[in-house]
Amino acid sequence: MRIVFMGTPDFAVPSLQTLLEYDGAQVVGVVTQPDRPVGRKRILTPTPVKVEAQKHGIPVLQPERLRRPEAVELVKELKPDLIVTAAYGQILPKSVLDIPPYGCINIHASLLPKYRGGAPIHHAVMNGDEVAGVTIMYMAEGLDTGDMLTRVEVAIEDTDTTGTMFDKLSVAGAELLKRTLPELASGRIQAEPQNEAEAVYSPNITREQEQIDWNKSAVAIWNQVRGLNPRPGAYTLWNGDVLKVWSCLKPEAGAENAAAAPGTVLSADERGIVVAAGAGAVTITELQPAGKKAMDAAQFVRGGQLKAGTVLG
């Protein structure tokens, strides 16, 4: 089976590796996003999928827009039997979907039809879900609307962040792909339509979603903080500047409203910075002032700048 793989970030690399190790497949090409400037020095950097493909001498295509006719023709020239995508970052046009006889399948990091769209892991953690997962589906013209082939569930532990779940689901998706390919190639697999009534969308995170609303419960803020770690990060305002909040302790269940206005620092010591929320209080354990590196709360408190009674916004 001739396979073209489309993917971009670290999440997609294990799936590409699975295809490279699979006896019944030949990866004839990889499609990934163009190299982008990264870091303060804006160094042009290849995608993780491109780096992995080049290790194995696989041809790499990096169209700015896959839907352009010249890009479609390049994919056609590879004569794929199957196209596999994982976090590619562009919607495949019908002209590409129609190329391979076995169709196009996508490794999506959610239990569809819940969390269609670009940020399923962020939303699962931010919403306090106890379970996430991966669904492999046929691709259609809609956004993650295709018929489902296989799925696997992965628990979200209290210690998990979006970053740790990316890693877990990346591995789970690669393992699921390994089990799915033989069934797909033999024609034994049965696709299941998605229930549109249960569809939930998870668009990319906005700047407004990054700011902490201290009127929310301590549990909701805890989920927001870990759901935005390691990117893009939750933040609050302190003296008019952005103060990133990277981690906090899980609040105790059933905590009452703190005896202060939401956003008020109740205490700041070596154990953490305790801030009143709409229900309960949040104990910040790692944060990052504007223009500085991330640090634990004890280190920040030793500077003596944040004291009880300070109001964060």
TrEMBL record:
GO terms for molecular function: methionyl-tRNA formyltransferase activity. The keyword Protein biosynthesis applies. CDD domains: FMT_core_Met-tRNA-FMT_N, Met_tRNA_FMT_C. It is an enzyme of class 2 (transferase). SUPFAM superfamilies: FMT C-terminal domain-like, Formyltransferase. Coiled coil: none annotated. It holds the Pfam family Formyl_trans_N. Residues 1-180 form the Formyl transferase N-terminal domain. (6S)-5,6,7,8-tetrahydrofolate binds at S110, L111, L112, P113. Residues 204-303 form the Formyl transferase C-terminal domain. Keywords: Protein biosynthesis, Transferase. It catalyses: L-methionyl-tRNA(fMet) + (6R)-10-formyltetrahydrofolate = N-formyl-L-methionyl-tRNA(fMet) + (6S)-5,6,7,8-tetrahydrofolate + H(+). Attaches a formyl group to the free amino group of methionyl-tRNA(fMet). The formyl group appears to play a dual role in the initiator identity of N-formylmethionyl-tRNA by promoting its recognition by IF2 and preventing the misappropriation of this tRNA by the elongation apparatus. Belongs to the Fmt family. HAMAP family: Formyl_trans. This is Methionyl-tRNA formyltransferase. The gene is fmt.
